[in-house]
Amino acid sequence: MTDHAILALGSIIMAGLTMAIGALGAAFGESRIGAAGMDALARQPDESGAITRNQFVALAMVESTAIFCLVIALVLLFANPFVSAG
Amino acid sequence: MTPEIFADRVLVWLGPVPITETMITSVATSLLLVIALRGLARAVVRRPASRSAAAGRLTFRFLHELVTETVGRPSPGLEIFAGSLFLFISGAAVFGQLPGVRAPTANLEAASALAALVFLAVPLVGVRARGPLGYIKHYFSPNPLLFPLHVVSELSRTLALALRLFGNMMSGHLIVALVVALTGLIVPVPLMALDLLIGLLQAYIFTILASVYIGAAIRVGEEESREET
C-alpha cells in the first residue's frame, strides 16, 4: 500500500472509533442526567421549571463533548491536513 | 464530492473582498429580525391588546427573566447583549430551515465570531464593574499559581462555545442532507423538526452560558459559579 492509502485507511478507521467512543461517553452521561432530572421532578413537581431548565443546560454541555468528537471525525474524513486532495 | 463542511462558498468577488454565502445569510437574518421586532415593538405601543403586542411582551419578558435569574440581579446592558445573541441564533436556526438556505451559524467562522463577542465582553464588563486593577486581581485570586489556569479556562470555554454551536447546527444540516440524498422528500421532515428544536435549544444554551460568563465578571467578590466547558 502506498503512504496515501495507509493514511486514508487510518483516518477512516479513527473517524469511526472517534465517533463510537465519543458517543458512548456522552450517552452514558446524558442518561444519568435524564434519570437525575426525573428523580428530582418526582420529588419536587413544583420546581419543574427550574429543574427542566438546568437539565437542558446540563444535557447540552454533556452533548458538546460528543459534538467535539463529531467535528474531529469530520475533520479526519473531509478536511484531513495529511491526506492531500482526498 | 467533498461536502462543504468547513469551507464557505464564495458567491461574488467585490474586488479583493469575497462575498460568501454566510455573509449574505447572516445579514438577511439580521434584517428580517430587525423588521419583525420593529413590527412587534410598534404593535406594543400602538395596539396593546393585539396578538403581536402580546408576542412582543412575551419575548421581552422571557429574555428579561432568563438573564435576571442567571445573573441574580437585573442588568439591562447584559439583557440587550444576551437577548440579541438569543434572537440571532434562534432566528438563524429558523432561517436555516428554508429550502436551499444554510443557517449562518452552521459555519465555523460565524459561530466563532459570536463566541469572540462573548470573550471580548467579559473583560470589558469586568473592568467597568471592578476597575482595571480589580479585574486583573481576579486572575490571581485564590493564589497566583492559578493564573495560567484562569487564562486557559477563558480560552477553552470560548472554543467550546464556538464549537458547540457550530457542531450542533452543522450536524443537523448534514443529517438532513444525507437523508434527503438517501431517501427522498417526506422522510427527513422529523429530522428537520429535531434540527429546529436543537437550534432553539442551542440559542438558549449559548445565551445562558454567555450571561453566566459575563455575570461572573460583573459580580464583585463572589465566587464564579458554573464555570468550565
Short description:
With 86 residues, chain A is mainly alpha-helical.
Tell me about this structure.
The complex is a heterodimer of chains A (86) and B (229). Chain A contains two helices and no strands. Chain A is an all-alpha fold and 86 residues long. In chain A, helix 1 runs antiparallel to helix 2. The mean pLDDT of chain A is 88. Chain B has 229 residues and is mainly alpha-helical. The longest helix of chain B has 36 residues. The chains are: A mainly alpha (86), B mainly alpha (229). At the A-B interface, helix 2 of A face helix 5 and helix 6 of B.
Q: Which ranges of chain A are low-confidence, i.e. pLDDT below 50, for 5 or more consecutive residues?
A: none
- Give, in spatial order, the strands making up the sheet with the most strands of chain B: 1-2
- The percentage of residues in β strands of chain A lies in under 5%
Oligomer: heterodimer
Over all CA atoms, what is the radius of gyration of chain A? Answer: 19 Å
Question: Main sheet of chain B, how many strands, which sense, barrel?
Answer: 2 strands, antiparallel
The gyration radius over C-alpha positions of chain B equals 20 Å
**How much strand of chain B?**
under 5%
Q: Main beta sheet of chain A: strand number and arrangement?
A: none
State the separation between the terminal residues of chain A, measured CA to CA.
16 Å
What's the domain count of chain B? 1
Total beta strands of chain A: 0
**Structural class determined from secondary elements of chain B:** mainly alpha
Biggest chain contact: A-B, 15 and 18 residues
Summing up helix and strand content along with how strands pair, one would put the structural category of chain A as mainly alpha
